[in-house]
Amino acid sequence: MIGIAALALVIAIGLMMIRALHGPTLYDRVLAVNSLGTKIVLLLGIMGFLLGRPDFLDISVLYALINFVATIAILKFFRYRSFQVSLTRRSGGGSK
């Protein structure tokens, strides 16, 4: 049963890779890469269970954290075209 779940995850990873490479928009590609990372975390958990290696769960948690931070960083970069935060305020409409 677990082997079937691992096979389904491998198929889903393949489909996410196709979506990431041929997505129509940038945000579709970012979403596909984020989903790909989530599927890999699940696959690492299943592999750790099948192989009797509980340390794979630690690796998958670390990978999930890196995936989250990378997704936020990529979206911030494509929104502002920079990783730096602008310290100047935009004029107009602000409270005094």
What would your notes on this structure say?
With 96 residues, this protein is an all-alpha fold. It has one domain (2-80). 76% of the residues lie in helices and 0% in strands. The protein has three helices and no strands. The N and C termini lie far apart (63 Å). 4% of the residues are buried. The model has no long low-confidence stretch (mean pLDDT 86).
Question: Topology of this structure?
Answer:
Elements: H1 2-22, H2 26-51, H3 55-80
Give me a quick take on this structure.
The chain is mainly alpha-helical. Helix content is 76%, strand content 0%.
Task: Jot down its keywords.
96 residues; mainly alpha; 3 helices; 0% strand
